[in-house]
Amino acid sequence: MERGIFLQPASIKEKLVKEHLEKTIFRTVDSAEILRFQKELKTDLEKFNVWGVTPSRVPKSSWEKLQIGDLVAFYSQRKFYLLGQVVDKFHNKDLAKYLWGENEKGETWEYIYLIDPDSLISIDVNSEKVAKILNYKPNYNFMPARYHQNSELIALFTDKLLKEIEKSKDIITTVQREKIVATIGKYKRDPSFSIKVKQNYENKCAICGIPNEGAIVDAAHVKPVKDGGPDIEENGIALCKVHHHLFDAGLITIKNGKLTVSPTAHSDLRNHPLISEFENKNIKLKGTSEEFLKWHNENIFKG
Ligand SMILES: [Zn+2]
Q1: Measuring CA to CA, which of 103, 129, 222, 273 is 20 to 30 A from 33?
Q2: What is the pTM of this model?
Q3: Ligand 1 center to residue 75 CA distance, Å?
């Protein structure tokens, strides 16, 4: 899946834009509030920054192409000033009216997308650079909102931006720089990984079957992200906190379809019911690939 970017005009000189920024970008909205109007969300985050566009301000084709995991960049007065990652999108008039009301034409901002608040950063990207990549005139005003799948453009907003941050060491604080580096790393992740993996396992631990009450079940990466493990369902398994931790520590794995305990595990652990009851029992895999488990067996598991 190629990542895209949604170029969102949002002029800070416009009164309504300023109000919307204040309400739902500089402040977050709780998932519970959104769930009053929207049946379900495709992410398990609890807070969001929210933006919406009126039907006349976004071509339908551009809206339909926007996907979870894409970037969004806000434009005003010849520069792009905010960058974030989209974690859900939907068409919902009632939520739009609740969040922002209506404009003087009776329209509302019903084409809505949710942004991960931890992904949102201030940027300063000259719009001429963006116009050049897209073969627009240098003074193009980026109206209406449009979706692009263009690797050069994505690089401008991520890799090139990182390089500029590196260069401007003196004027940018370490804290700001760290936030930007962490954020841009985050853009490479798929925010729907966790939801998909947990859905495959019906929100239960693959080993002990405990249900996901109190957020006890995680979507674990079989091959860890730091080792290049991708955010795809085949590399995911739903595990409770205890089994997740032991799996990551290499004390348990799934070998030949069975829960296998490391010979290095202390006997107190081995004899604990959370382990002893499941050792050598068949584990039903739901979407997890043998290939990634093999990698875990060979590289993480203390066999
Ligand atoms: Zn478990």
Answers
A1: 103
A2: 0.83
A3: 46
